[in-house]
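Long-time lurker, finally posting.

We've been working with Pyridoxal 5'-phosphate synthase glutaminase subunit PdxT (Mediterraneibacter faecis) and I want a structural starting point before designing mutants. I don't trust myself to interpret raw outputs, so I'm hoping someone here can both generate the structure tokens and explain anything notable. Sequence follows.
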Amino acid sequence: MTIAVLALQGAFIEHEQMLQKLGVHTIELRQASDLQKDFDGIILPGGESTVQGKLLHDLNMFEPLKEKIQSGMPVLATCAGMILLASDIAEQDETYFETIPMTVKRNAYGRQLGSFHTNAEAAGIGEIPMTFIRAPFVESVHADASGNTPEILSIVENRIVGVKYKNQMAFAFHPELDQDTRIHEAFLGMIR
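Top reply, 14 upvotes:
Generated this for you. Predicted structure of Pyridoxal 5'-phosphate synthase glutaminase subunit PdxT:
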């Protein structure tokens, strides 16, 4: 199994280290030609969603990556990655891949000082550590054209911070920054 990690900006190295700890081969997506390589799943890491979105377009990676996600390639998205997948972004006209029918609020917990750590439940996984850094949250989920609604996986302080929709899992926090590997294992379980 090979997992491709978007490596344009943000916390991608920590995801690679987490996967290597689980014995999984990783490749980095840095340019359009990397999308021609063989891989079984994609990680969209935390970082700055506006910068990642701009780089994806500038490097001609946006459309081919969106196509892979829409065709069912399993995706794990964290923090900024969650924003990239959202169909709607509160107080912002620009969106990115639009592959999960949900409205996300950026920097919902404030700036860097609004960062925090907690333990909470993730459906089907159990209680896990959650590190939030300038995190978004999901304001709402909605039905797609077929009537399918994202499954809510995690709620912290009455806010949705984890969802699963088709082959996509998106979390507002950074599982790659904690020692618990269960989020990554659940993602790999969607591929196996």
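Before you design anything, note these points.
DSSP finds five helices and twelve strands in the chain.
The mean pLDDT is 94.
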